[in-house]
Design brief:
The chain is about 75% helix and about 5% strand. The protein has about 325 residues and is mainly alpha-helical. It is globular and about 80 Å long.
């Protein structure tokens, strides 16, 4: 297991370096001028050159990339002389649009996106697994058909449509929930949950439909295995057969899907955060795209890559816990 973890950590490091190199190449070698975008339309040529020097864009490409990697692990100074800007560890660049280091922007928004991702993940797991397992155990019945038709219908609705319907029904018509505006968990847990309930439901309905279909097919396959018949022949209670043997072995594909989805949402749900006005990483990314704030775009991209590869590493390690047939 130790050697496996070491190999996986080396692989994760390689993936992150590759993502960093690709995104750096895309954002800094394209025809668009990052210095001109950071300076603004009214900047003179001399001012653009000053900004280019501060951003280090007048250096060779390999030096720019080396300085960027060095800044992530040790921090760095952007520019020199009186115009130098210090970017502390870990330095993901500097947003000249916001006049702040990218890392501080990410850490300010990250708790919001984590609250959104974790809350919706709990909901979609409960709804999706519950519907999928029920449909699998009642395969071919009216309940099975009804749950799967509902799952297909829910998955067909884009999240922005679901969000707008929820706002219209729960806020404007019924008035049972406030319009979402983020409140920190440590400040007021009740208002934190009530303000995030609609975004949680909007995301959970979309993902729960996919998890219901995946868990149904996995459970049907698992319940047809010989060891399930053996467990039943030994006289085990049906609940033990389903939960201990069928569900554990049938959840491996679901766990893989969950790692990818949760890792992506931790780096921000762009559409959901934009519709509900939630100040998370997704909203930060959307604003950076509109302003062509390339350091922020690059920082969010690297953060998303980190969460996705990290979640996949955790999922790989959990395989042995969930499925006893897996041995590393």
């Amino acid at each position: 297991m130790t050697l496996y973890v070491i190999r996986r950590l080396i692989g994760v490091t390689g993936v992150l370096l590759a993502v960093c190199a690709i995104t750096f190449t895309i954002f800094y070698l394209l025809p668009a001028d990052p210095a001109a975008a950071a300076c603004g339309k009214s900047c003179s040529t001399e001012r653009v050159e000053q900004v280019r020097h501060v951003m280090g864009l007048d250096l060779p490409v390999w030096r720019q990339f080396a300085d960027y990697l060095t800044g992530i692990f040790a921090g760095r100074d952007l520019g020199s002389g009186p115009h130098a800007v210090h970017c502390g560890f870990p330095c993901f660049g500097y947003s000249y649009e916001n006049s702040l280091p990218v890392w501080s922007l990410l850490t300010d928004r990250l708790p919001v996106s984590v609250s959104l991702a974790v809350g919706s993940a709990v909901l979609w797991l409960v709804l999706g697994l519950g519907a999928g397992v029920t449909a699998a155990l009642k395969k071919g019945s009216l309940a099975d058909r009804g749950l799967m038709v509902g799952a297909v219908a829910t998955a067909s609705l884009p999240v922005y449509f679901t969000a707008m319907v929820l706002i219209w029904g729960a806020v404007r018509i019924a008035g049972v929930l406030p319009y979402p505006s983020y409140v920190a968990l440590t400040r007021d847990p009740v208002h934190w949950a009530s303000n995030l309930l609609l975004p949680w439901i909007a995301l959970a309905l979309l993902y729960a439909a996919m998890y219901a279909r995946q868990s149904r097919s996995s459970m049907i396959e698992a319940m047809a295995q010989p060891y399930i018949r053996t467990a039943r022949a030994k006289g085990m209670p049906e609940r033990t057969v389903v939960l201990k043997h069928g569900l554990r072995s049938g959840m491996t594909p679901v766990l893989t899907l969950f790692g990818m989805d949760l890792g992506g949402l931790l780096a921000g749900a762009v559409i959901t955060e934009s519709i509900f006005g939630i100040p998370g990483v997704g909203q930060l990314f959307f604003d950076a795209l509109r302003r062509s704030d390339q350091p922020v775009i690059l920082g969010v991209t690297l953060l998303a890559a980190f969460f996705i590869v990290g979640a996949n590493l955790v999922v790989d390690l959990l395989y042995a816990v969930i499925d006893p047939r897996v041995r590393y």
